[in-house]
Amino acid sequence: MTLAKRPLGSTGIDVSSLGLGTVKFGRNQEVKYPTGFSLPVDRAIESLLDLARESGINLLDTAPAYGSSEQRIGRLLRDRDQWVICTKVGEEFTTGKSFFDFSAEHTRRSVERSLRDMKTDYLDIVLIHSDGEDLKILEQTDCLATLLKMQEKGQIRAIGMSTKTLEGGLRAVETLDLVM
């Protein structure tokens, strides 16, 4: 079975109807799973990526808040141009705790780090990883303006937001390429 690709709105990006989330590639602390788990070895991730690709999955979802996920993707992913990589900005996970920063400087550094860690010169999708204050993030921070500048430079193909509120989702859909 091979999954068909579908257009992602008007972004010009075609994605499989099923994506592969990668939080378990790099983070096993403070995650909302009923039981604990160990991180997989590299060979297991390589096998999963191969199986996903053979099945027609081309969408990878990751984030800096997913621990070492982005570094492992950078090390293990082959045929980058065959994948749609979706990452996020805003949330970080260090020393066992999450924190949020939507400043222009942090947003820029986060995207640059994701590019470096995943060994790519562009990101297909960057989502703002909301802390629950969707409208405040969109209206009172420089996060979106920073992402738009990076999109103009060709570092980002599409910008969206992983929202937590109805109001935020409705506002985001007015101005962004996609909303999760």
Automatic annotation (TrEMBL):
Residues 18-167 form the NADP-dependent oxidoreductase domain. InterPro entries: AKR (IPR020471), NAD(P)_OxRdtase_dom_sf (IPR036812), NADP_OxRdtase_dom (IPR023210). GO terms for molecular function: oxidoreductase activity. GO terms for cellular component: cytosol. It comes from the Bacteria. Pfam families: Aldo_ket_red. This is Aldo/keto reductase.
